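In the previous chapter we treated chains in isolation. Here, by contrast, the input contains two separate entities that must be folded as one system, with a combined length of 510 residues.
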Amino acid sequence: MRRWRGIIVPLVVLLVAEITFRATVTMSDSLAPPSRAVGALLGALADGTLLANTARTLAGMLGGLAIGGIAGLAAGIAIGFSETLRRASFLTIELLRPIPSVALLPLSLLIFGFGYSMEIAVVAFATFWPALILTQNAVAQIEPRLIEVARLMGLSRLETAWKIVLPAAAPRLMTALRLAAGLALVVAVTAEIVSNPQGLGHDLMIAQETLRPERMFGVLLWVGLFGWGKNAALLRLERWMFSHRGEVDTSVAA
Amino acid sequence: MPDSKTAFSFEGVHLELGGRPILQDINFAVKRGEFACVIGASGCGKTTLLRLLAGLVKPTSGSVRLGDQTVTAPSREVAVVFQDYSRALLPWRTATGNVSLALEAIGVPPAERADRIAPLLAKVGLTDHAEKYPSQLSGGMQQRLQIARSLAQDPSVLLMDEPFGALDAMTRQSLQDEVLRIASERHATVLFVTHDLEEALYLGDRVIALYSNPGRVARMVDIPLPRPRDQLATREHPEFLRLRRELFTVMEEIHA
């Protein structure tokens, strides 16, 4: 019973919205009661359009996350270990990082045109920075004693990276992945709303342009469920990977 | 002074860190198979002494020698057991995996590792806990695991940095006896750092007391107590009590 307690508040909110809507509004081009939104959601799921759009958004999101995440991870490890690299890259990072990723949408559209490439490029840019910063941070927080143990045993640099650094940083890297995945979803949907005519963001724009608020609310509900499901899956993965260490940081939700 | 029987020696060692003298004029040699204990107040440089011998720190002047070689970097001949076992063990590896790390480092083929790990874990009484992670082991067991790991690289010199400082009295005593047994079985040379005078007397063939600021040798005393040592008989031995009294005065001087 206890684990279902969290559902009470959303249910009450939906119920109040439903009652208020039915009591006050008769016709609307901008709002829809929860019942019709759920109906539209089920309809969109049944006819396959929503799932197809979800797959496109997921592809843009994962493609960008893979590129941005792996590049950020590699750069973060390199910078985390080399004072020279850190000094050399500091200013560049601090100048590029504050650029809002969505500000690059026009440029990305100009370079790649419509389609996956422009969306993936912007998601990759957006996720690269948190991946870089959090990896650097994870490397910096590795227990120095472990590095000393590696030195004493005579492990090579590569062995130390593979056997000590990566596993030691893994819990923090998973947290970074969770944060970056949340950001990737936001940026992917934004790209689709602003310029890329595909995926869930575009679905929302069509609903707006064709004056179908119920579809809009239905898709919004779906995006919320999608984000929640993604986060829950990553958290489960994290717990499963690191349960014996007692090191999972669940305080950071994405 | 050093000859073929010398396991390691400090020869005129000075060490400064950030312009501050940490160790001054350290001169002593430890014979093969000898159990040497270093005592002193915290911050007197006794851990630094151990880190010099491990090759983690280089002396400002003088030399640290291991056998007939000058120590310049960590060597597989020397293994270290740290006080903070929970930080020195790999939390993502089981007991077996942690011992395996030392074997991987010296290039033991995977097929041979299991046969070498089992006897090491048995030696420290962890056979039944081989597949547990460090977080599932008590402090005493984690320290036993660290000892097993240090033995895996088959060192000729074992350095122990206040290894039992964080353990309760009973666990500490049983580990003292285990270390004595292991050291005598392997004829290992041990440099054991502690701030506990009685522990030093109980374990050592020799006790080296250090002054603080900077660390200097205050007194070097041979401990001619019979072996094997026994928690009751040794600690009640008249010679033990006499040495304890003698060194207690030195310790008071050190802490003053």
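Chain A touches chain B through 21 residues (CB under 8 Å). Chain A has one domain: 32-241. Compare these points with the single-chain example from earlier in the chapter.
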